[in-house]
Amino acid sequence: MKSINKIIIGHDGKNPGAGWFLDKVTVKQEGNPKYDQPFECKRWLATDEDDGKIVRELVANQSQYLDKISYNVSVKTGDKNNAGTDANVHIKIFGSKGDTGTIKLRSSDNTFNKFERGRVDLFNIENEDIGKVIMIKFYIFGLYIN
Fold it and tell me: What residues have CB less than 8 Å from 128, skipping those under 6 apart?
């Protein structure tokens, strides 16, 4: 039997309460338990939890936290009247080895009400190593902000 090394698992994110904390998936060969293949996740598949992803690629015998890099992002909102926003802000970081994909900046590490006038908000993004950072793009409601 050829072994399975990688699976992709997720959901459509529709309906209230669609979020899911996935511990692990075990793929079994019927009648032959020595070929059972575990895929650990131990992460949320939810738009409002963790990194907001609802689809994950799982590799056999690896934790989802291996080879992850923390990117610390600080965002300063201008100090002008009505400078703050309640909009959904997303970021995409491009590096020499790839990009992070579009990530919603859902919760600031230093404040509850993010993107307020004259304030710096801190975000921690965990992702695969994308190499040396080349460019960052911010998106609000699908608009690209340079």
Answer: 67, 68, 69, 98
Distance CA(67)–CA(20), nearest Å, equals: 23
Residue 49 exposed, middle or buried by CB count within 10 Å (0-12, 13-18, 19+): middle
Residue at token pair 């529709």:
14
State which H helix or E strand residue 55 sits in.
strand 55-59
Q: Which domains does the chain have, with CATH numbers?
A: 6-59 (2.60.60.20), 68-145 (2.60.60.20)
Distance from chain centroid for Cα 115? 20
Six-digit token pair at 69? 């890099």
Give pLDDT tens digits for 13-40.
888 889 999 999 998 888 887 888 889 9
DSSP state of 17: T
Write out pLDDT tens, residues 91-115.
Answer: 999 999 888 888 888 888 898 899 9
pTM (2 d.p.): 0.58
